[in-house]
Request: fold
Amino acid sequence: MAWIRFPRFTQAVNVFNPKLFDNLSLAAFLAWVGLGSDALSSSAYGPPEIYYALKGHEYLSVVLAIGIPVSVFIIAAGYKQVIALFPGGGGGYHTASTLLGRKAGLVSGSALIVDYILTAAISVASGTEALLSILPAYWYQERIYLDVVILLFLVFINLRGMKESIKVLLPIFMGFILTHILVLGWGLMGHVGDVPQIVDHTVAGARHDSMQYGWLFIIALIFRAFSLGGGTYTGLEAVANGVHIMREPRVQTGQRAMTYLAVSLSLVAGSLIFLYLMYDVHGHEGQTLNAVLYNAITHGWHLDGIDYGQYAVLFTLLTEGLLLYIAANTGIITAPIIMANMAVDRWLPERFSYLSDRFVSRNGILLIGAASIAILLATGGHVGVLVVLYSINVFITFTLTMAGLTHHWSASRATESRWLIKLAVSVAGFIVSASILAITIFEKFDQGGWFTLLVTGIVIVLSYRIYRHYKSLSKITEDLDETMMDVVPEGLEPGAPLPMDPRGATAVFFVSRFDGLGLHTLLTAHRMVGGFVKNYVFLLAGIVGQGEFKGVKAIEELKVYVEAEAAQYVAFCQSEGMAATWFATYATDRIQAMEELAKVAIRYFPQSIFFAGRIIDTPYQTPFWGLLHDEVSFIIQDRLQHDGFSMMIIPVHVRGIPSQPPRIALPISMPENLVLIQGDDKDEEVRGGDRKAAVQPS
Reply:
């Protein structure tokens, strides 16, 4: 898999530019637009599902119109705590990992990845259906092609950068906000006098149903409606996942963005549910429930004989449909962040933690885009099928997050002055999330929810196997480090620099840190070419991945670490009487960084011979090795050879070289006068003609 790359299209980025993080970071408003649109877009399908679930008992809409905003603010308050505890981002994944343990984090992260893939797929499919509903019917047959084109476009703009993708879609978001303020505000103000009558109707309905069915029935009906409309809550966690990309002070910016999201979602979702009851709307064939409501609200909007109502409805539905595309963009933005954090913790291949020159996880974006397109093609883009698969996983993460917060505040009673208030919020959030999760699984399991849980389980198992692979390999490299460090003198310190001859042959080593692999490579190369090499040069690339992209301070810490590791190589060489130096660079692209370092080495030492080490351990050379390890040494070797320079990749057999001689399967010819010296006795010779049997096929 090392050949799957975009090597020549990356741009050099100065990661020490003090304005870099300011230019890339999001203010609270842009964070609300980019990370909060998923939740707002759920108004297209969440509130209608809630209302349909109350069929025959629509009076309970009043309770849900109040309960939805309350539950939204409870969950949002919990995630504000997450933002304060984990300003480095990661949201529910880091919360579960840190407060409940690594395996809980694995479940939370896996659930989120599947959820965001489904978010991208269902949002695009829903948006396309909403837009095609205002076009001629024959366009509907082509919806799957439009879905794929839209997803490819979203992938493309995200590869150009997160902030750029948000700015492209900002007009749609603002159009949605303005049209919904106008239409929903008009609907509420126009019937504010009907509120007392609606309240009386609700009380009478509750009294009737309690006498006929009992209060337990009413409570169960309310929770069922909550669960079936669970899509309304999706996206609430996105802000906490992306705190690390927000403008300083991050905590305040993230919490402000969460407030914007909670207020806007509560007002839109709560107003829609209340207006359904107020206008007594019912679904019409070929129209969404929201379309029926908007037509009812704008009925009579005439001026000078022109029906402005139909244009208001058209524009409102248009922005509602287009907002779903922004929600899909949120999934494409946020899922790679979760994947990068999991890759840092070794649950996923390390390549997902790498950032491009646009500071986005290119591998994650491409995978999420491909998976979303595959789901759309598999389901034919049918929203009804996708809805069944949706909204289960986000409540797995909500529940684990709130459980982690509950555990944390309960254990922090002695150190946290306001622990009781925070504990109450997290307990309430856990009750709401766990209840909706349980009912959602119960309601949707037979309809296809089992498939979502199965896919999530598969992701968990695969991630765990990846983690075990990396852990086993880490144990092997630790043993190698322990063995090779025996050759390093105690108290190693850099001495006076030895003069280097730029015209002499130079051994150049690609290393990552001062470890057993690097030392083994150095000593092996020295044994091979030490007789004519005059200089030793070490090249180190400090890669700015998800774990380091936390601000200028994190980059400076990376620089200090890399230079300290490089200095140890030089000190070791000096202790052995070898002239040595080092070069280092810092970038997001490992291939680009190594190429730049090679150019510097060639510039100062034109007679350079390059070396890199590669761990060989037979049980781990599986077909999936290329997926789990980038193997960039082979890419650099290929390019250096094209430029006329030699590079040798030295195998490091951590389990020892096989003792058995290789089997020879083909007949081999050799000169009859070949003379081999056996051992130390030069007189004991064996001629080729007498060894013909040894080279017959075995």
Remarks:
- Residues 1-9, 682-698 have pLDDT under 50 and may be disordered.
- The two ends are 35 Å apart (CA to CA).
- The chain has 23 helices and nine strands.
- The first strand starts at residue 302 and ends at 303.
